[in-house]
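Supplementary notes for students who missed Thursday's class. We covered one full example, reproduced here. Read the sequence, then the structure, then the short commentary at the end.
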Amino acid sequence: MASNGDAEAKATALLRSPVGAFVVATVAGLRRPGRRVGGLPFPPQSLEDDQHVAERDPVALYELVLECKVHLNPYFPDYGQRVAALAAEAPSLREDALRLVRSPAAKRWFADLDRAQQVWVAPPASRDIVEPTRFHPDLTPFGGGTPKPRAALWTTTSIGSMASGWVLYLHIGEDSRPPPYSLWRFEPLPSARVYEIHEPLEWHSLCLAYPGEVYKDRLMPDWQSVARDWDAVHLSVGGLLTAEGVAVGTANSAKTELAGWSSESTVWFRWCFSRVERLPDVLT
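Structure (token representation):
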């Protein structure tokens, strides 16, 4: 799915994804107060928003996306029931999905990496200067069926006043930790090779091109092989909303499913940055 692809295709992809459909339903609920999807509770923070703010403001919309991601956790005991309710409701959300992907706030959901706006949130013990000599990725599998390398450098794209989606996730996500948060801006070299994921088939193609371990019949990428051809892999907001939790496969190919990528993000396999800039700490 190209970044400027057809709105119909994007809407269809959103409604085929549990988290994508949940976001569409939540935004629809803002316009029609009192609406519920199969009895599902909407994220509590989202209910405080103005009726149309999510369609006007990219930051407000992305905050809502992250709220939905946190509140549709695969480890919740009723996750299967929630997914079934969203799937049953999806046909009635078609016009809402089209309206959302055409809204100004979702304009860059399927855009390639913005190389001028990459932000790293440092671990608590890494507040000093960041240097290439300290970059030691471990590209062995993370384990437990999570298709990530064990250790690498991850950045997110700053959006307007939001320096990093991970700051909000660190407040509300399952791996939350209190502030302060130490932030750095990384500017990749123009020559950095970045594989883009905007839809489930692009994740599927990555796994088939660089096959790694299989966990519960899901093929995952071999990150050491990926790193031979690519410097980074970028999951766009559109990729998060259409590929996360969506199984892809045929009778003639292995099944794949993106899982455990908590936000729009880029994983870097090697140091390929022309500039690093310390940003102000986030204190609250």
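Commentary. DSSP finds ten helices and 13 strands in the chain. The chain has two domains: 7-106, 118-278. If anything here is unclear, bring it to office hours.
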